[in-house]
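During the no-cost extension, the postdoctoral fellow (Dr. R.K.) reprocessed legacy sequence entries with the updated structure-token encoder. One reprocessed record is reproduced below for audit purposes.
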Amino acid sequence: MKKYTILFLAAVMLFARENPFEPVKAEQFQKEPPLSETKQQPQSVQKIKIFSFLEILDNNRSIIIQTKDRAIRVFTVKNPLKTVLDFRRKNSFYTKKIDLQNENFKKVEIGSHKNYYRIAITPRKGCNPEAEKTDLGYKVFCK
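Re-encoded structure tokens follow.
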């Protein structure tokens, strides 16, 4: 009985392919085009999730701060040049510093205060930063 079972399983395994003794042709596999032939896609937006209530989108020209918190103040400090945004929220966390690979901005610093948190954005030389309110939060860009 064992011999018949083994013989049956071997027959099923042999006939699983159309012709088990013929090698698989390379044409059946799809080739990917070389990287030089693929279309260059525009640089994507880098999404940096800081906290559950705060995300920063970096698209290499501007920064979008996504938050549902209400802004208290938005201002620019002249020496050293920084754009500062204060948002109302009673949270306590350690200061976070994020270095950016952005064309216009060097780094973002986020710090907690008593009833609000502050986001300070340092621009690169030659950039005059400006902030405006958007549907997602705030957008900081160079004029």
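The two ends are 86 Å apart (CA to CA). Residues 2-14 form the longest helix (13 residues). The remaining legacy entries will be reprocessed before the final report is submitted.
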